[in-house]
From TrEMBL, chain A:
<keyword id="KW-0560">Oxidoreductase</keyword>
<feature type="region of interest" description="Disordered">
    <location>
        <begin position="154"/>
        <end position="180"/>
    </location>
</feature>
<feature type="domain" description="2Fe-2S ferredoxin-type">
    <location>
        <begin position="2"/>
        <end position="78"/>
    </location>
</feature>
<dbReference type="GO" id="GO:0051537">
    <property type="term" value="F:2 iron, 2 sulfur cluster binding"/>
</dbReference>
<dbReference type="InterPro" id="IPR002888">
    <property type="entry name" value="2Fe-2S-bd"/>
</dbReference>
<dbReference type="Pfam" id="PF01799">
    <property type="entry name" value="Fer2_2"/>
</dbReference>
<keyword id="KW-0001">2Fe-2S</keyword>
<keyword id="KW-0411">Iron-sulfur</keyword>
<dbReference type="InterPro" id="IPR012675">
    <property type="entry name" value="Beta-grasp_dom_sf"/>
</dbReference>
UniProtKB/TrEMBL annotation, chain B:
<dbReference type="InterPro" id="IPR016169">
    <property type="entry name" value="FAD-bd_PCMH_sub2"/>
</dbReference>
<dbReference type="GO" id="GO:0071949">
    <property type="term" value="F:FAD binding"/>
</dbReference>
<dbReference type="InterPro" id="IPR016166">
    <property type="entry name" value="FAD-bd_PCMH"/>
</dbReference>
<dbReference type="InterPro" id="IPR005107">
    <property type="entry name" value="CO_DH_flav_C"/>
</dbReference>
<dbReference type="InterPro" id="IPR051312">
    <property type="entry name" value="Diverse_Substr_Oxidored"/>
</dbReference>
<dbReference type="InterPro" id="IPR016167">
    <property type="entry name" value="FAD-bd_PCMH_sub1"/>
</dbReference>
<dbReference type="Pfam" id="PF03450">
    <property type="entry name" value="CO_deh_flav_C"/>
</dbReference>
<keyword id="KW-0285">Flavoprotein</keyword>
<dbReference type="Pfam" id="PF00941">
    <property type="entry name" value="FAD_binding_5"/>
</dbReference>
Length: 180, 285
């Protein structure tokens, strides 16, 4: 067993884990955060995507021990404290970007990462940004629409704060992409 | 699925990692980003007794220049390789090939060193590194040695790395004067290459002075299309001459037949994709 400490959706946890425990199972089975589903279990589908230290990762392909000392954000950490949805959650709802909903947590986490690097993507860039996420209801059209709508809304509402630095933005976009 | 049990070590230095690898011998596997290793463990295709997690060893991440050489730390993520200004300036082929690896989340975790040490011939990074004539620096109990990329890949998923050695950096001769292109044929957006072609071309006005062509998934290791390279040396920088040279791209290769493609189809793809890659690298499109 290995001792890990990790912050998930703002709460700090300390746990003894088997080294082979995957991050997604740690989140679901140990912490009860079942908003992150297990999809394909082969690093393909992206349903289990979470944010680890500012970057999207497939949590079925990260060991819990690799997240030791890190900070994880799941789909359950996106809404504000008063329960108001994240702009991406709202846009997915409004644009009918989900049918069965299984891929949605991963789609939103991937889209959030994409918009952090590129706050004003083209439809093509959205598709490329979501290439690691599969939707088997074939809802891609509406998913792309939702991401573009959320991007537009965030650009409207988030004027760049002076001195704000995006978590891992490119130099060309530094200062214009405040963390989502 | 859940991986079989293993012991876990998290060394703080390369020396400590090498010591742990030496002690465990063939029973240990190195864990970096884990984007190749963890799927293998989950599918129970491997049963290492020990994972040596080198992911936090300082000094193995990042890109710098050393004279005419670009030095890339083995732990540099694909994402960082793709976006690094030094890589883009001096080894654009590597950035282009790496940008096609899997998907953004995998590129966040996966590392250049892991991709090379895993040595999947269908990978995109090995063919690019081979075309760039890179040197791979490995460290073992007796210190460091440098292995040319041409000698590094020895068989399917096999490399010149000994069980007690760690790949620590990739040294790429700056290729500023070369045009480049990576052409990949895949069956779905995030899939491995059915065939990939990493091309570098150096032109002198109307002539191709020199070319280097690395092939992904045309055999148990990434390979150079040497017959094509020879045919291109001194050839007219013209579509007909490139097409004629590209006809020899599959010579000497040993592609597999599998669910994605037959060997014959892969040979066909190698010729077609090489023509496209060289035309693009020679700025003839």
């Amino acid at each position: 067993m290995t001792r890990i400490s990790v912050k998930v959706d703002g709460t700090a946890y300390e746990d003894e884990v088997e080294p082979r425990l995957l991050l997604v199972h740690y989140l679901r089975d140990r912490l009860g955060l079942t908003g992150t589903p297990v999809g394909c279990d082969t690093t393909n589908c992206g349903a289990c995507m979470v944010d680890l230290d500012g970057k999207s990762v497939k949590s079925c392909s990260v060991l819990a021990v690799q997240a030791d000392g890190g900070e994880v954000t799941t789909i359950q950490g996106l809404a504000s404290a008063d329960g108001e949805w994240h702009p991406l959650q709202r846009a997915f709802h409004e644009q009918h970007a989900l049918q069965c909903g299984f891929c949605t947590p991963g789609m939103i986490m991937a889209a959030r990462d994409l918009l952090r690097e590129n706050p004003d993507p083209t439809p093509e860039e959205v598709r490329e940004g979501l290439e690691g996420n599969l939707c088997r209801c074939t809802g891609y059209m509406n998913i792309v629409r939702a991401v573009l709508a959320a991007a537009a809304e965030e650009r409207r509402h988030q004027a760049p704060e002076p001195g704000a630095v995006a978590e891992h933005a490119e130099p060309s976009t530094a200062g214009s992409g405040a963390p989502v | 699925m859940i991986p079989a049990s293993f012991e876990y070590a998290r060394p703080r230095t390369v020396e400590e990692a090498v010591g742990q690898l030496a002690l465990a011998g063939e029973e240990a596997k190195v864990l970096a980003g884990g984007q190749s290793l963890l799927p293998i463990l989950r599918m129970r295709l491997a049963f290492p007794e020990l994972l040596v997690d080198v992911g936090r060893i300082p000094g193995l991440r990042g890109v710098r220049t050393d004279g005419d050489t670009l030095v890339i730390g083995a732990l540099t993520s694909h994402h960082d390789v793709v976006h690094d200004p030094l890589v883009r300036r001096h080894a654009g082929l590597l950035a282009a090939a790496t940008a096609t690896v899997a998907d953004p989340a995998v590129r966040h975790r996966g590392t250049i060193g892991g991709s090379l040490a895993h040595a999947d011939p269908a990978g995109d990074v090995p063919a690019a590194v081979l075309a760039l004539d890179a040197e791979l620096v490995v460290q073992g109990p007796d210190g460091r040695r440098s292995v040319p990329a041409r000698e590094f890949f020895t068989d399917y998923l096999q490399t010149a790395l000994r069980p007690d050695e760690l790949l620590v950096e990739v040294r790429v001769p700056k290729a500023d004067a070369w045009g480049f292109h990576y052409e990949k044929f895949q069956l779905s957006a995030q899939a491995w290459a059915v065939v990939g072609v990493a091309a570098l071309v150096r032109r002198d006005d109307g002539r191709i002075v020199e070319s280097r062509v690395g092939l992904s998934n045309m055999g148990p290791t990434p390979v150079r299309a040497t017959a094509c390279e020879e045919a291109l040396a001194g050839a007219d920088a013209a579509p007909d001459a490139v097409a004629s040279a590209a006809d020899s791209a599959a010579e000497g290769t040993r592609p597999a037949s599998d669910l994605s493609a037959s060997a014959e189809y892969r040979e066909h793809l190698a010729r077609v994709l090489t023509r496209r890659a060289v035309l693009a690298a020679a700025d003839l499109t």
